[in-house]
From TrEMBL:
Residues 1-21 form the signal peptide. This is TonB-dependent receptor plug domain protein. Residues 137-243 form the TonB-dependent receptor plug domain. It comes from Porphyromonas somerae. It comes from the Bacteria.
Length: 1042
């Protein structure tokens, strides 16, 4: 690709320039060694940890610290006396002037710039709810943006997997598909994102999850994960499921700095979720199944020797389209030749259909400004190819921020925009991915006849459908942070977020399904959708802070906020487009119910008004207290239930300051305790039609023997109440020698009045209604630790690890012991059980005499899988959602070389093996999972078999597919290398000899999701299905600062 060639050319030229120029450079140095001057140093935080990205200036020369906090700056001439004045600046830090003295190591500690209004670095704060008093007793975790930026992934949401303990991200399959994101598990009986997904806040404005997916990590300064009631209380009922609080990068004072980041590489096939049969085993399975539509039996001596010539002729005609009048010997000879020919073919459809692809991402940013006005501008283009032909995603993003400082404070303007397009060959009922598991190993792309798809060729299976989705995003925020007088802070932010989603799905008129099922004037289908999400948010906050007697720090804050959301959806479906694959080509003359044009649309709005009060107190940096109260009114609820509250109390102790003998110690440098308690109402599972009557238009509806133009969208429940989340959190933090840290959090969160769609009698005109049905508990432990083992001049080594444990339990179902949906015999929820407990049959294995699969019921009696399953037959098996998640990783550096690695692991969950590709007599013409022959009972005396007699009956296989059992379920643990980065920083002396155009440069080899290890054999351990899983990505990355 052009970008890849450009990258390789640039890298080659840099290397050759360095190598070829060494002798002249060496000579030049010999003549100039009396004037050349090199400055080196180390910049650290107050706790001794290195600071990355600090700008170091000496006159017009400048450089930036690396991830180890070190810098090297080469000047053209030696200053007088070997002394040089330096200016060090970084966002959020006090700018510091120091003097470097030749021969003396330089170590600089940069202090936080909190409270310094006249600080040169602009500290505008659009996220006005990010108050210091909130973090003192709440659980606020921060994502390591340095590690996140090193993951070559086009989807920011997936890149967060393993970033913070308690934040879980589950891949849902296809490239471009929105993942599942949860903070400390699910809070409602209502499953899905609407009721359990966190709130997303960018620079003070609320954004949609779709907008969050498309953000550029290089434009983000920090992401905070707010977990408990104290941390989320300032956002009120919107934040019941936690908050992801994102702050964009801002400008800095000084000359314009240009940064170019470019990376290109490949995406790999990834882990093969299961092994399918090769030719010999597949032909043997077909022979054992004795199905004449499959060649393994059709051409076998078993069939030819036992069937009559008439049956042979009929079978060959129905399967092959020929009706030979051969003798039995001729049939045997023909069958032998066919089997020999098929055995020469060994097609690996995984390698043929799942393909490597390309990845590229290019980013250009400019930042700078004066002491009064600073700016940041950034543009990004990224593209990632999918694992299937016809699947890819490309994205453009643009970010601009402008910060103005006056005597009273700061005014900031932020603009963000984005465009994304995803192409997919997958329809709702078919994906080319299925062909990996269905096409036989003795078939090829050029086969004139497919036994797996009778009557079709390979070309009849591809190009049958295409879909694209397009997203256009625009957002803006205007904020002010003013200090009218000492101790008083006035903050305000206005934000708009607009997302337009468009989609188009086309089944061409030439598709096999259209040609074989439709008349020429009916062929070809198109479906077009348009969805807009508009979010408007406003927040005004006043905070007064006062320090009394140098020890008593008191603050009080009040705010009012308003949030408005509007979503519009329009879709049109039509048939008969022929070769005109656009909406205007729809045949409007088609009038049958399944072919006539179909139109649908909706418009949903909601508004929320809130008032809040928060107060904090700190005593001599030893004791922290916090309290917050927020009342919110929502248009989703009836007038008498409109107002709901969120409140929180929290406290913290800094024992290293409080206990005299620990104060000022060099070993135990930090020891803190935190506790919080709070309640938050949640509207997450409530829609505009849940509690008040909402009517919708429709083309036709049969109701009470009449057609009606409008009807209720859903049966509303005027008794509906918001869920109430009560939470308790305890935390401990320990720091040793400013280098080793341990954080422990224990939490319990109870959801009362939990919501679920309950079944109701059909006589109501509806089948379900949202209702408050019970209470749910989520509790767990989160641990994180880090250790800086080496921090010398040349060698650096730090380790990190995290572990989160979360379990859920149904506490009460308001008078019931269990809830069942439809005709299910296993409960959706049961008192005392986990939120998503797996129920199944206690399998005993296959009876070697009869071939029946047997199980043990709750009374201990042996039963056959062929019976009708009742509730007493089922037993509990385990947790579907893994309760344990965690990470571990390291950062190792030697001089200019640095290695970062991060592993992500999950364990404790169970998922049943999918029976989709375990074949029976009805679908043995398609390929099957490897090993099925040796694990299937075929004849009397077959022992230790997993699968029953293929002719055991429909009920047996229906039960086998519908109910998990103890022999066909497995732990879904997995270990993934989620990030690997090997980075080299080009020396300042090399950059100096190359003309000092580039001030800072790194070259890196980076990878994400490079491998996954798991004992689970039933597909993807994340989903429990045979989806393709996450793509491994490997790239070469070049970063240049000018």
């Amino acid at each position: 690709m052009p970008q890849t060639k450009l990258l390789l050319t640039l890298l080659t030229s840099l290397t050759l320039s360095a190598e070829l120029a060494l002798p002249p450079l060496a000579a030049a140095q010999t003549t100039q060694q009396t004037t050349a001057f090199t400055i080196t140093g180390l910049v650290v935080e107050r706790d001794g940890s290195p600071l990355y990205g600090v700008i170091v200036r000496a006159g017009n020369a400048k450089t930036m610290t690396n991830s180890g906090g070190r810098f090297t700056l080469t000047l053209a001439s030696r200053p007088e006396g070997g002394r040089q004045a330096l200016t060090l600046s970084a966002v959020g830090k006090k700018t510091q002037q120091v003097t470097f003295v030749e021969g003396h190591p330089l170590r600089v500690v940069l202090e936080d710039a909190v409270g310094e209004i006249k600080e040169v670095v602009v500290r505008a704060r659009p996220n006005i709810n990010a108050l210091d008093l909130r973090a003192r007793s709440g659980v606020v975790a921060q994502v390591d943006m340095k590690l996140l930026a090193q993951k070559p992934m086009i989807d920011l949401s997936l890149a967060l997997q393993g970033a913070v303990p308690g934040l879980t991200v589950v891949n849902r399959g296809e490239l471009g598909m929105k993942p599942e994101i949860r903070i400390r598990g699910n809070n409602s009986f209502t499953k899905g994102d609407a009721a359990n997904e966190p709130l997303y806040v960018l620079d003070g404005k609320i954004i949609s999850p779709q907008a969050f997916m498309t953000l550029n990590p290089l434009d983000i300064r920090e992401i905070k994960v707010l977990k408990d009631a104290v941390a989320t209380a300032l956002y009120g009922v919107k934040a019941a499921n936690g908050v992801l609080e994102i702050s964009s990068r801002r400008g800095v004072s000084g000359p314009m700095s240009i940064s170019l980041s470019t990376q290109a590489g490949v995406t790999l096939r990834g882990r093969q979720t299961t092994t399918m049969m090769d030719t010999d085993e597949k032909l043997e399975l077909e022979r054992r199944m004795q199905v004449t539509t499959a060649p393994g039996y059709l051409f076998s001596p078993d069939f030819i020797s036992s069937a009559t010539l008439s049956d042979l002729r009929q079978s060959y005609q129905s399967t092959l389209g020929i009706a030979p009048t051969w003798t039995r010997e001729e049939y045997l000879a023909y069958g032998s030749r066919q089997l020999d020919s098929l055995r020469q073919i060994h097609t690996n459809w995984w390698h043929d259909l799942i393909r490597p692809n390309s990845y590229q991402s290019h980013n250009l940013s400019l930042r700078g400004g004066s002491q009064d006005v600073t700016y940041y501008v950034s543009g990004n283009f990224s593209r990632q190819g999918g694992q299937l032909e016809g699947n890819d995603t490309k994205r453009f993003t643009l970010t601009n921020s402008l910060d103005w400082q006056s005597r009273l404070g700061f005014v900031s303007l932020g603009l963000t925009g984005g465009y994304a397009k995803t192409n997919s060959p997958n329809s709702s009922d078919f994906s080319p991915e299925q062909l990996v598991y269905e096409l036989n190993p003795y078939e090829t792309k050029s086969s004139q006849q497919l036994f797996s798809y009778p009557g079709r060729k390979y070309s009849d299976l591809t190009g049958q459908f295409r879909r694209w989705t397009k997203e256009i995003r625009f957002g803006t925020s205007l904020s002010a942070n003013l200090r009218p007088f000492e101790g008083m802070q006035l903050d305000a932010v206005l934000g708009l977020d607009y997302v337009l989603n468009e989609s188009e799905q086309v089944t061409p008129a030439t598709a096999y399904s259209e040609v074989t099922r439709r008349r020429p004037i009916e062929r070809g289908m198109i479906s077009v959708g348009k969805n807009t999400d508009f979010n408007y948010s406003a927040n005004l906050r006043a905070t007064y802070q006062r320090l009394f007697a140098e020890k008593h720090d008191f603050s009080i804050s009040a705010n009012t906020d308003y949030y408005y959301s509007e979503g519009r959806l329009l879709s049109v479906t039509g048939h008969g487009i022929g070769l005109q694959e656009y909406l205007a080509g729809v045949n409007k003359g088609l009038t049958s119910a399944d072919l006539r044009p179909d139109f649908s649309g909706s418009n949903a709005t909601s508004a929320q008004l809130g008032f809040g009060l928060a107060t904090g107190y700190t005593y001599d940096k030893k004791l922290d207290l916090f309290a917050a109260y927020k009342a919110d009114a929502s248009s989703l609820l009836p007038r008498d239930k409109r107002w709901n509250t969120a409140w929180a109390l929290g406290g913290g102790l800094h024992l290293e300051e409080l206990i005299p003998f620990l104060r000022g110690g060099s070993l135990l440098t930090g020891l803190g305790l935190k506790a919080s308690w709070g309640l938050t109402a949640s509207l997450g599972g409530i829609t505009s039609a849940s509690a008040v009557p909402i009517f919708s238009y429709q083309q036709s509806s049969f109701y009470a023997d009449q057609y009606r133009l409008i009807r209720l969208s859903t049966l509303y429940n005027d008794r509906l109440k918001p869920e109430q989340l009560k939470s308790v959190d305890l935390g401990l933090s320990v720091q040793l020698a400013h280098a080793h840290t341990l954080d422990v959090n224990l939490y319990r969160r109870d959801t009362e009045d939990a919501l679920i769609m309950t079944d109701i009698p059909a006589s109501n005109g509806f089948l379900s209604m949202l209702d408050n049905v019970g209470s749910l508990r989520n509790e767990g432990v989160e641990l994180s630790a880090s250790s800086r083992l080496l921090s010398g001049e040349d060698w650096r080594l730090s380790l990190r690890a995290a572990l989160a444990y979360n379990r859920s339990k149904v506490l009460d179902l308001y008078g019931k012991t269990a809830i069942y949906s439809g005709d299910n015999v296993y409960p959706d929820y049961e008192v005392g059980r986990s939120y998503d407990y797996v129920y199944g049959l206690d399998a005993l294995g296959v009876n070697p005499l009869s071939g029946e699969l047997m199980f043990r019921d709750r009374q201990g009696a042996e039963q056959s899988f062929g019976k009708t399953i009742v509730r007493d037959d089922l037993v509990g098996i385990g947790y579907r959602t893994p309760p344990y998640t965690g990470t571990f990783g390291l950062t190792f550096g030697y001089k200019a070389l640095e290695l970062d690695a991060q592993f992500y692991y999950v364990f404790g969950g169970f998922k049943a093996y999918s029976m989709t590709y375990v074949r029976g007599v009805s679908d043995v013409n398609k390929n099957a999972i490897a090993g099925q022959v040796s694990r299937t009972w075929f004849a009397l005396g077959d022992e230790d078999r997993l699968y029953p007699n293929p002719r055991a009956g429909t009920q047996t296989f229906n039960n086998l597919s519908h109910y998990p059992n103890t022999r066909m379920i497995s732990r879904s643990d997995y270990l993934r290398l989620s990030m690997l980065s090997l980075r080299y920083r080009l020396s300042s002396s090399l950059l100096h000899h190359l003309g000092d155009v580039v001030k800072y440069a790194t070259i890196a080899l980076q990878g994400s999701n490079l491998f996954t290890l798991t004992p689970y054999k039933g597909g993807s351990p994340e989903s429990g299905t045979y989806d393709l899983g996450v793509q491994p990505v490997l790239t070469l990355h070049l970063n240049l600062n000018f």
